[in-house]
Amino acid sequence: MESPSATSTEPRPVLPPEPRQRWRLTVRRGPDAPPLPQRELAAAWDATIVTSGLPVVVGDPAKPKPKVVFGAPLTVGMVSEGELLEIVLTERLPAWQVREALVPCLPDGWALVGLADVWLGGPALVGRVVAADYRVTLEAQESATGTPGPAGRTGPTAADVATAARTLLAARSLPRERAKGDGTVRYDLRPLLADIAVTDPGPPVTVRIRTRFHAELGTGRPEEVVLALGDTLGTPLRIGSIVRERLVLVDDPGLLGPDAP
């Protein structure tokens, strides 16, 4: 006598294709990119992957949707030179084929900078992003020292900003207040600040600010670091532009210094 399983006419469930390859994309968001909120931006990237025709792993089979993993949220409208995204494919493809599929259908204002075939079994991208580098250009304005600037204006010199930066980095804590809803919350900026360095004496002065991502304390914001610099100088600083240069991963060697998380 045949077993019930041998005579069953019920169709066997169709198993989804197995993951075969994991690609990490480095992408750039230019100043002409529409200022989309994170949800709309995620939808734009979903559309990119679908249009590309790449055999990407989807989430719920009942509602197929490409799984696009973002390294970290980006402030709406901020220019970026090195965002990280990951997709997982159900087939192994060469880099040139992935590039050719993606480039024609990228979201408006975005460009593909690089591709890396990373270990399929590695830890999730989100948990590996620990910091970000920002390039901040300061506007010329009245400074604490009154140093003359171009066209009769005055502003912070590179020495002013470097001295204030050293003061912040030497502090054990930096109590600040951050707007939240209709009120404010108090927090300590110091654990979220990794480094500040003057990269162009200007004018205008340009600084590179590295802020940390912390699972419990939140994310350091470059504009809050500029506010703290202004408080240390004794005069508010105005921001001309902010560009997020790159995201820093936990295994990037020696990038966070001796007090790295």
List keywords for this structure.
alpha+beta, Alpha-Beta Plaits, 2 domains, 9-stranded mixed β-sheet, two-stranded antiparallel sheet, elongated
Mind explaining what this structure looks like?
The chain is of the alpha+beta class and 261 residues long. It folds into 2 domains: 21-122, Pseudouridine synthase I, catalytic domain, N-terminal subdomain (Alpha-Beta Plaits), CATH 3.30.70.580; 130-249, Alpha-Beta Plaits (2-Layer Sandwich), CATH 3.30.70. The chain is 21% helix and 32% strand. The chain contains 6 helices and 11 strands. The chain has helices spanning 4-7, 38-52, 95-102, 125-128, 158-170, 222-233; strands at residues 21-29, 69-70, 79-89, 110-118, 129-138, 175-180, 183-188, 193-200, 206-214, 218-219, 239-249. Strands 1, 2, 3, 4, 5, 8, 9, 10 and 11 form a 9-stranded mixed sheet that branches. Strand 8 (193-200) and strand 9 (206-214) form a beta hairpin. Helix 5 crosses helix 6 (222-233). Mean pLDDT is 86; it is low at 143-152 and 257-261.
- Succession of helices and strands: HEHEEHEHEHEEEEEHE
> CATH fold name of the largest domain, please?
Alpha-Beta Plaits
Question: How does the helix and strand content classify structurally?
Answer: alpha+beta
* Terminal Cα span: 65 Å
Number of strands: 11
Report the oligomer.
Answer: single chain
Largest sheet: 9 strands, mixed
Global outline: elongated
Q: Low-confidence segments, ≥5 residues, pLDDT <50?
A: 143-152, 257-261
Q: Any guess at the CATH architecture of the largest domain?
A: 2-Layer Sandwich
